[in-house]
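PROTOCOL LOG
Step 1. Enter all chains and additional molecules of the complex.
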Amino acid sequence: MTSPPVSGTNTASEPPVDQTALALYVLGLGDDALILAQRLGEWITRAPQIEEDIALGNIALDLLGQARTLLSYAGDIEGGGRDEDDLAFLRDEREFHNVQLVEIGNGDFAVTMARQLIFSAYQYELYSALLTSTDQTLSALAAKAVKEVDYHRDHAAQWVLRLGDGTPESHDRMQAGLDRVWPYVEEIFDSTDVVTALPGIAAEPAALRPVWAGYVENVIAEATLTLPTPKWRSRGGRTGYHSENLGHLLPEMQNLHRSHPGATW
Amino acid sequence: MSDDKDQIPTSGPVAPVHGTGTDLTAAGGHGAVPISGVPVPEPEPSGATGHSVGLRKGWPLWEVFIRARRGLSHQHVGSLHAPDAAMALRNARDVYTRRGEGVSIWIIPSSAITASSPDEKDPFFDPAMDKAYRHPTFYDVPEGVSHL
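Step 2. Run joint prediction.
Step 3. Record the structure below.
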């Protein structure tokens, strides 16, 4: 998958792709999806309604599917023989490249929906941009995933609207949910060396922000909520610096595989 | 699923039904098969009476109809709870079309369905039983005609 399939047409004229950067970029996107899938999975049997249980499970499984494709691809690019399971279950905290937004605890339902709105709206713009990526694996994944993410974004938006514009209690808790997750927004749109090393392949995060902001701010306004103005911001997830939350998430996610290497369903 | 409602004992030595008469509600059952006199749960405005039906807290019931393919009609597939029609549609997508079962979904409030009552089964349906001439069984089917 790493090298051009049959006749190497893109070797002569185009500059060689920075494989190290590409592997890190793909790993970052895969880790985002993987960690959020794990977080959403924690809701199963705990959602407010069985219908919502299924909805969150569906979203988690969509994300897990994206993560599998991305991690497998990252392993191929590395060329070190690591497969999706090795990458998901045998790396430690500092080796994960997800943004910190996806690792924060679920909180109450409002926190989860606030996080989902931010992240799915970002992923929607990300995959829309990757549709035209010159990397064919990424563009093919984007074509499939953008439809999934469109639904995730809508699901979160529907709930933010209902809770924000619901009862005084639901309004306050939805606002608290937004306030809780908003410090993690800046980090998503930070540019990185990895992205700048991959022109035409990676999507420049800052370029996604205006459309993202248009969508999210519209939902927030319609939900009669206030755009938070946080006093601090997270940083460092893409280079392996994480909040305490990831340290608690990983053992639960990795325990089975590490205790029983090679176990299958 | 709801057939057993026909057999609710009116009196007898079975498990005691607390209260009298009217509290045989069809909680959790399908609104499409009501028993006469069963109150249809409505969404409660917050703080109305404070009573909640288990975990459902007044989320109304919706009936889900799915069209499997273009050219077919919508078929009833089940019911679910949701706070409003838009969420019911999304829940139906998640609950009933996870495996590509449909191309179109209809959502209908269960309370909007007027159903025939099991009590009226005889006058409604029995008169049709002995009228064989209503069935297209008096024609010779020509050779080679399929799908008849």
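Step 4. Note key features.
DSSP finds two helices and three strands in chain B.
The radius of gyration of chain B is 21 Å.
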